[in-house]
Amino acid sequence: MKATCILCDRTDELDRREFKTKQLRNKPIRMYICKECDHRVAIHTMERINSGKFKFNKPFNKPLSVLKREILERESN
């Protein structure tokens, strides 16, 4: 099954046995986000949480050292 990312308009071929593919097929209203965009959104969310200006109601357990490493990897690319 082919799916288009809603953020970058990249078309990916998805394995038809994966859970996400089954969700998209059964409920076409669901939106698909590619792995790169999903990772980028997660990094930006972590940056906002750690800025102190964003109230996040869900518990967050990722260590700061892992967060810094991911941010540095993203900036180096």
TrEMBL record:
It holds the Pfam family DUF2197. InterPro entries: DUF2197. It comes from the Bacteria. This is DUF2197 domain-containing protein.
